[in-house]
Predict the 3D structure of the following.
Amino acid sequence: MSTLPSSLVTTKWLAEHLDDPNLILLDASWYMPGSARNPEQEWRNCHIRGARFFDFDTKIKDPDADLPHMLPSPELFAQEVSKLGISNQSMIVVYDSHGLFSAPRVWWMFKAMGHDNVAVLNGGLPAWLAEQYPTESGEADKPEASQYAASLLPQWVISADNLQLLLNDPDTVVLDARPAARFDGTEPEPRAGVRSGHMPNAKSLPFTYLIKDGFFLDRDQLESWFNTVAADPEKRLIFSCGSGVTACVLALAAELTGRKLLTVYDGSWAEWGASLKYPVCR
């Protein structure tokens, strides 16, 4: 079985392995609500050769949740992933049209469902296009369905109630990936009815600080950022953001630096800030 060199691969590596029969390439592009852009249509217009569209916003999500694109049950995840022709032996590479934005969300989803052989393309579609590697357009051939089995690993995800119990835990650090002004409460939240501010004892680490021109900073620079907010590498890191997307950018970056105890708060500020049940600081 083919395996990935790490959780982050380069365009050169992907180009060299594009014809590997075990490779599954996923376009996980997504845009903020109100952007008037359609990621699936853009995938039809232009995608890396062989890429399949992974819709975590409207299809591969919990259909009963009031919050946006929540992690589905293992059964639903397995059902939808099987339709994409993905098996438990697949080597999965995920990219997005920003460079590094929504692809880590899908990386985290697979990790949470017990699939380790998954990586994100550093630089995403923009880097691939800049290198003039092969693309195609139109609907992809419908893949032959597989039989995927998913098993949720609880350490990768946490509920709001369980997170609240850890806000004063000295062995846990909550990192917020939203812009600093939203964390501070000096800029309003984009979602109606959501309070401004942050969780007690949370620390601000905007995901944009870890990226330059659509690429992750090098490992030493990433380590420097994480050491600034959580010097002890043995501490558990819990990541939050607006709706559970860019929190996964932090999770991937932390994993690249060798951090092991990583958890994403899926409901993120869309849940926490909307409920008076949970405390907010400004």
